[in-house]
């Protein structure tokens, strides 16, 4: 799960439909602009933003000016391009301060990452739309990834997606429809994926042995809030051959134990360890 695996920028037809359906189109447009600028590696001009999001340029300009006034977006008068401004950090900082999962998960990610020499992620699950990386721990040894806090990925991709399909209580027809849109290096067939989801449900964790990224093994375990609602996942990423040598079953056991503790803490069954 790296930023490099995310699709290239392109017109968002779903956004256009959402803007038409919503009772607050200005908010939808502003959110779409912020997401686009957040994914872009370079500042963008009005025409580029409008084209990528399917917006009328004049409407796009009004949205950008409002975001500049609120200090969420900056404007370079020389290049006539826009980029994210530091104002978005204020919102992010407040969210991180109030998100209990991050505080509980970070030491767990650090401990497992160092013990097994893997990159560890804590991700928040947003229905069937996407997952968002909210915590990261890199061992600094065998594998370095460009994934950062705030990175977004399709919900059903890789090992985490198998957990969502297994424990998210979503209609099979919707899972199948979304599965067909996923991009893999070595895509499993739908039947293979269904079998993997079933195995995930029985064993409590999921493994992607290189389907998503060739040569990279991804392990994911679900974390639940109260009443068994799937809310987060712990994710380990490493070179497949290295993980097999260092002990994949031991990593899976450590992650299962950590996820159970986090689930208990988030549901208020046990107090956080100090």
CATH class assignment of the largest domain: Alpha Beta
Under the CATH scheme, the architecture of the largest domain is 2-Layer Sandwich
Sheet with most strands: 6 strands, antiparallel
CATH level 3 topology of the largest domain: Beta-Lactamase
Instruction: Estimate the helix proportion, in percent.
Output: 40-55%
Short description:
By secondary structure, this protein is of the alpha+beta class. It contains eleven helices and nine strands.
What topology does this entry show?
Elements: H1 13-21, H2 25-39, E1 44-45, H3 46-53, H4 57-69, E2 73-76, E3 81-84, H5 87-98, H6 100-116, E4 119-126, E5 130-137, E6 152-154, H7 158-167, H8 172-179, H9 190-203, E7 206-208, E8 216-224, E9 230-239, H10 240-246, H11 248-266
Antiparallel strand pairs: 1-3, 2-3, 4-5, 4-9, 5-6, 7-8, 8-9
């Amino acid at each position: 799960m790296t930023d490099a695996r995310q699709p290239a920028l392109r017109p968002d037809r779903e956004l256009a439909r959402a803007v038409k359906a919503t009772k607050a189109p200005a908010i939808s447009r502003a959110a779409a602009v912020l997401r686009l600028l957040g994914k872009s590696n370079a500042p963008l001009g009005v025409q580029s933003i409008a084209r990528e999001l399917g917006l009328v340029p004049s409407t796009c300009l009004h949205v950008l000016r409002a975001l500049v006034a609120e200090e969420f977006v900056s404007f370079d008068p020389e290049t006539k391009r826009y980029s994210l401004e530091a104002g978005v950090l204020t919102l992010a900082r407040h969210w991180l301060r109030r998100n209990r999962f991050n505080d509980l998960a970070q030491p767990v990610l650090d401990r497992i990452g160092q013990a097994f020499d893997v990159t560890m992620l804590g991700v928040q699950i947003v229905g069937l739309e996407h997952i968002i990386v909210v915590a990261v721990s890199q061992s600094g040894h065998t594998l370095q990834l460009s994934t950062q806090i705030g990175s977004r990925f399709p919900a059903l991709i890789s090992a985490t997606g198998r957990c969502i399909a297994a424990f998210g209580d979503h209609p099979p027809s919707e899972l199948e429809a979304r599965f067909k849109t996923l991009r893999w290096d070595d895509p499993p067939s739908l039947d293979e994926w269904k079998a993997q989801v079933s195995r995930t449900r029985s064993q409590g964790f999921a493994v992607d042995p290189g389907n998503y990224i060739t040569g990279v093994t991804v392990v994911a375990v679900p974390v639940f809030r109260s009443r068994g609602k799937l809310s987060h996942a712990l994710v380990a990423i490493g070179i497949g051959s290295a993980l097999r040598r260092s002990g994949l079953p031991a990593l899976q056991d450590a992650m299962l134990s950590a996820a159970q503790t986090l689930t208990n803490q988030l549901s208020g069954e046990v107090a956080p360890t100090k």
